[in-house]
TrEMBL record:
<keyword id="KW-0479">Metal-binding</keyword>
<dbReference type="InterPro" id="IPR023867">
    <property type="entry name" value="Sulphatase_maturase_rSAM"/>
</dbReference>
<keyword id="KW-0411">Iron-sulfur</keyword>
<dbReference type="InterPro" id="IPR058240">
    <property type="entry name" value="rSAM_sf"/>
</dbReference>
<dbReference type="GO" id="GO:0016491">
    <property type="term" value="F:oxidoreductase activity"/>
</dbReference>
<dbReference type="GO" id="GO:0046872">
    <property type="term" value="F:metal ion binding"/>
</dbReference>
<dbReference type="InterPro" id="IPR023885">
    <property type="entry name" value="4Fe4S-binding_SPASM_dom"/>
</dbReference>
<dbReference type="Pfam" id="PF04055">
    <property type="entry name" value="Radical_SAM"/>
</dbReference>
<protein>
    <recommendedName>
        <fullName>Radical SAM core domain-containing protein</fullName>
    </recommendedName>
</protein>
<dbReference type="InterPro" id="IPR007197">
    <property type="entry name" value="rSAM"/>
</dbReference>
<dbReference type="InterPro" id="IPR023886">
    <property type="entry name" value="QH-AmDH_gsu_maturation"/>
</dbReference>
<dbReference type="GO" id="GO:0051536">
    <property type="term" value="F:iron-sulfur cluster binding"/>
</dbReference>
<keyword id="KW-0408">Iron</keyword>
<dbReference type="InterPro" id="IPR013785">
    <property type="entry name" value="Aldolase_TIM"/>
</dbReference>
<keyword id="KW-0949">S-adenosyl-L-methionine</keyword>
<feature type="domain" description="Radical SAM core">
    <location>
        <begin position="98"/>
        <end position="324"/>
    </location>
</feature>
């Protein structure tokens, strides 16, 4: 067999409360090492190459030859060990021949009635009148979705903006068209919407409830933090109006859980305080956090030190999540939900998200974008709803995105979870949608290690938590996050 070497970028060990956990990096599968596997792994970790006969001589007094051989074969099968002389294996690139959409995002208005300081939208116009999408464009978008989702029994329409509530006539008209049209083809359709909540009324809430919309509210926490960036065009803070409307929404809405989405910016990083206010005082079902992504010189972006502090706060909140999960409770921290879902499912991503593959965004003119974040940017479009998807052009993007070896992702231990990170984050920060989000890399590796620790502790104390809390959430999320496997 010749000398063997440890393929370090295919295996990552995390010790948790006496349990030696090994993550198989290509598949994100998690194994607990028994005594023999631990000794074999540690032996190969100490040396650049080891002859199997020497391994047996060193470890044989503690472990039988059959047990050692079985462990060796398992590591070879997982490509954790490999012949020291073997050539490296290039990352396979899956050819993209069709675009099996599950989700279409309609940017129904470029306009917004707010002037948030950190908004990434390059086509944003204020006040809310903006440039609105017409029904024929929305209808053609939905027909494109149905065509591309021919093998699916469920599709999702997301309304986005600007502020989508500023084009409610279109939303109402498309919903009235889409549901019976999908039923004709034996499909169900779900509707989603993200709003700043300033235009919500009881009548609108009841209409959304009747049509079972998945609603997310953009809100940045208690009054002082929210009002720091989320202002009207005239510069007035919006917390009082938003909080009043959120309380009304949550008191009336029954069909689906409502989540809050927080943008962390310089000076707005109190993760624990924000979560406590939005979840426990206002009553959101869950709260998720994301950093501002508006380019390298924006004054409200988080610098390296602020990012580090924010991640430490997220880990502190994550520990509270774990403590509650061990008791069978869910504190509604969506970043932890997603992290634990990736680990529990053994997520294996070739690309970071469904953008351009399971999901496309449509602008007011019917042009097709990778996702809603790219609408209005100077990045290429990929066809339009009238003529269809430019499949060769879009396939070229997706195939290029699958192999980021030139950027250093090849040896990263979280490559199957991160897959290089958000295209728009990379574009906004570095001008290149394929460049990894370097400012996150170390923090994300630490966050995944924290997720592994959290997963093991919950599994030890209360494994039923994953069935009762994460699996229903996965089912609700639909297929918008689908990626190449």
């Amino acid at each position: 067999m010749g000398a063997l070497t440890l393929i370090r970028h295919n295996a990552h060990r995390v010790d948790v409360d006496g349990h030696a956990m090994l993550m198989h990096v290509p598949t994100t599968s998690l194994f607990e090492l028994d005594g023999v596997a631990r000794d074999v792994y540690d032996l190969f970790r100490r040396a650049p190459a080891v002859d199997p006969d020497l391994m047996r001589a060193e470890l044989g007094p503690r472990h039988g030859p059959d047990t050692l051989s079985e462990c060796l074969q398992s590591f070879l099968a997982l490509d954790i060990l490999r012949n020291a002389e073997a050539a490296d294996i290039p990352r396979p690139v899956v050819k993209v021949e069709e675009i099996p959409l599950s989700t279409i995002i309609l940017n129904v208005n470029t306009g917004c009635n707010l002037a948030c300081t950190y908004c990434y939208k390059e086509d944003l116009t204020t006040p809310a009148k903006g440039q609105k999408m017409g029904f024929e464009t929305a209808k053609a978008s939905f027909e494109l979705l149905l065509k591309q989702a021919h093998a699916r029994d469920r599709v999702n329409v997301v309304f986005f903006g600007g502020e989508p509530l500023s084009n409610m006539p279109l939303i109402r008209e498309l919903v009235a068209y889409a549901r019976p049209r999908a039923a004709e083809l034996g499909k169900a359709v779900d509707f989603s919407l993200t709003t700043n909540a300033t235009l919500l009324t009881p009548e609108l809430v009841d209409w959304f409830d009747a049509h079972r919309f998945a609603l997310t509210v953009s809100m940045d926490g208690p009054k002082a933090l929210h009002d720091a960036n989320r202002k009207t065009v005239g510069g007035k803070g919006t917390y009082d109006l938003v909080a009043r409307n959120v309380r009304m929404l949550l008191s009336r809405y029954r069909s689906r859980p409502v989540g809050g989405r927080v943008t962390l910016t310089r000076g707005v990083t109190d993760v624990i305080g924000i979560h406590d206010h939005l979840k426990n005082e206002l009553g959101f079902h869950e709260v998720g956090f994301g950093p501002a992504t508006s380019g390298p010189i924006a004054g409200f972006n988080l610098d390296a030190e602020a990012l580090k502090r924010a991640f430490e706060d997220m880990k502190t909140l994550g520990r509270r999540y774990v403590e509650a999960a061990c008791r069978g409770e869910n504190i509604g921290f969506s970043n932890m939900h997603q992290l634990l879902t990736d680990i529990a499912q053994g997520t294996k991503k070739a690309v970071p998200c469904g953008a351009g593959l399971g999901m496309l965004a449509v602008d007011k003119d019917g042009e097709l974008h990778l996702c809603h974040r790219f609408v209005g940017s100077n990045q290429p479009t990929y066809g339009n709803v009238a003529k269809g998807i430019d499949i060769p052009k879009l396939a070229g993007f997706i195939e290029t995105a699958q192999d980021r070896s030139a950027y250093g992702c090849k040896t990263c231990r979280i490559r199957s979870i991160c897959a290089g990170g958000c295209y728009h984050e990379s574009y906004a920060r570095q001008g290149d949608p394929f460049a990894p989000v370097w400012h996150y890399c170390d923090l994300m590796r630490d966050w995944v290690d924290f997720g592994i620790e959290s997963y093991v502790r919950i599994m030890q104390a209360n494994p039923s938590f994953f069935r009762s809390q994460l699996e229903p959430r996965i089912a609700r999320s639909g297929t918008a996050r689908e990626v190449l496997q």
